[in-house]
Specification:
single chain, 516 residues, alpha/beta, five-stranded parallel sheet, 20 helices
């Protein structure tokens, strides 16, 4: 056995991959005993789990779990820390149900404990004879003693690989958690007006009354809604959002209320609406001011009676949802012009909250820039960049008509087109079409004045310069976003400005992967 034991030790010690190590360990033991079936088991939280198996129909065994309270040979060996030989059918410890689906049954089972350096048993290895006579296993005492020594050596290597696998899985979980943190939007701001928004959000979260969030497009109204939901007793239940201006009226009704099979042409199966899907949680209705009049009456009933009626349904259904809504329109003015139902306005505006535009929060701009720089640098896997003082001064003084959404898109763009770590005021000219020579209220120094090029002396930037570095798709992407920002994400109006019909514009949005 000398040469074979040397080969066994070499096979175990040379292998670094955990899965291949388990396989080599088991196959080497089967070869030493001249049999074809075997398995490796480890103690798990509520019993014992097979992590490797070999032989005919081994796929039925690998991954199998045995409850700790159920009699089994591996369970006995792990609990007692002793080697055993068992004859299936005659030994009460044999878990016969395991082999019910296997064609060739086990005739004799040799099972050894797997032990850590400190003597703790963490698993077991089974070497199984399936020959007709059940006489292939070498059960000589000295041979078994030597085999036990080899298994103890391999057992330590195997345990190290299991620990390594656990660490890899733990690192994966941490990485997934970090990815979730990186992708998650957070509320950032220390400006007094914005701190008041956060205070109101926490106060409103303690109730179930409707909240109406107002503010310009891109100010973060949905973030505020999500924060209210997160702080509420409904946290853990669904938070479902629907933009009321970005889809046609009939489709919006189906999305919110659902429909029954056969309700209309094309309704080939039942569809659960947003209100029913969010039962127990929160529904966020963005751009509620653009909701068509006929739908406003149905929303009113949901708010008043907590009832919905899917299209094609005869009877109403009760739902338990909290409604948060948002708009960038002046709903009081819309009510006065009879463009929005007065009764619905008062039902939705129980708890009002206004999110200030970014130009009214200048001290939050550096914080937001810093946040998006870190977030996007992590996402891109690049070193974190920084803004020079003169660049930062300009960005603080800029009015940000698109608010936080514009600022976030600016950071993504500037990170991609700027190669060096420091982003200067000159670099900003690659993003802002009408970039000024100096920041507002800041005189231009003599040195900088001397560096002016002819096109910087009060003249507009040459048209061709703006298109440098753009592909056709990038240009179309930016143009579509510009029209959406200009029209506060009202797709119909943006399509009109583009000179195309709504369906064409919507199709281009999808192709360019543009979402609010």
């Amino acid at each position: 056995m000398g040469d074979r034991s040397f080969e066994f030790c070499k096979a175990v010690s040379d292998e670094l991959d955990p899965e291949r190590l388990r396989r080599k360990f088991l196959m080497a033991l089967l070869e030493l005993q001249n049999v074809e079936r075997g398995s490796i088991w480890i103690r798990s939280e509520d019993g014992f789990t097979c992590i490797e198996a070999a032989g005919s129909q081994s796929e039925l065994i690998k991954g199998l779990k045995i409850a700790s309270g159920h009699p089994s040979i591996v369970g006995w060996v792990i609990d007692n820390g002793e080697m055993t030989v068992a004859e299936p059918g005659k030994d009460s410890r044999h878990y016969k149900e395991v082999e019910e689906a296997i064609d060739i049954k086990s005739k004799l089972i040799l099972c050894f404990p797997l032990v850590l350096r400190n003597g703790q048993v963490y698993g077991a290895v089974q070497i199984i004879d399936t020959s007709a006579g059940g006489n292939r296993l070498n059960l000589d005492k000295d041979y078994l003693q030597l085999l036990r020594q080899l298994i103890d050596i391999g057992s330590i290597a195997l345990s190290n690989s299991l620990i390594y696998t656990d660490q890899v899985q733990e690192n994966l979980k941490l990485r997934q958690t970090l990815d979730a943190i990186r992708s998650e939007d957070v509320i950032i701001g220390k400006d007094a007006t914005f701190l008041n928004v956060r205070k109101r959000s926490a106060e409103y979260a303690r109730t179930d009354f409707p909240v109406l969030i107002t503010g310009e497009s891109g100010t973060g109204k949905e973030l505020v809604a999500r924060e209210i939901h997160r702080l509420s007793m409904r946290n853990g239940k669904p938070f479902l959002a629907q933009n009321c201006s970005c889809i046609p009226d009939t489709l919006l009704e189906s999305e919110l209320f659902g429909y029954q099979k056969g309700a209309f042409t094309g309704a080939i199966k039942n569809k659960t609406g947003l209100f029913e899907a969010a039962n127990g949680g929160t529904v966020f209705l963005d751009e509620i001011g653009d909701m068509p009049a006929q739908l406003q009456a149905r929303i009113l009933r949901v708010v008043q009676e907590s009832e919905i009626k899917p299209l094609g349904e005869i009877y109403s259904r009760k739902v338990d949802v909290r409604i948060l809504s948002a708009t960038n329109r002046d709903l009081r003015n819309a009510v006065a012009k009879e463009q929005f139902r007065e009764d619905l306005y008062y039902r939705l505006n129980v708890l009002p909250i206004n999110v200030p535009p970014l130009r009214e929060r200048p001290e939050d701009i550096p914080l937001l820039l810093d946040h998006f720089l870190s977030k996007e640098s992590l996402r891109l896997g690049t070193d974190r960049k920084y803004f020079s003082k003169d660049a930062l001064d300009f960005l603080i003084s800029y009015s940000w008509p698109g608010n936080i959404r514009e600022l976030e898109n600016f950071v993504k763009h500037i990170l991609v087109i700027t190669r060096q770590d420091g982003i200067t005021r000159k670099d900003l000219a690659n993003h802002f079409l009408d970039f000024p020579l100096s920041t507002r209220n800041e005189p231009v120094g003599e040195e900088e004045d001397a560096e002016k090029s002819p096109d910087q002396e009060g003249k507009p930037i040459a048209p061709g310069r703006f298109f440098d570095g753009y592909s056709w798709e990038q240009l179309e992407h930016d143009y579509v976003r510009y029209l959406l920002e200009k029209n506060k994400w009202h797709i119909t109006r943006a399509a009109k400005d583009a000179g195309v019909n709504r369906s064409t514009f919507d199709s281009r949005m999808k192709k360019l992967n543009i979402r609010k």
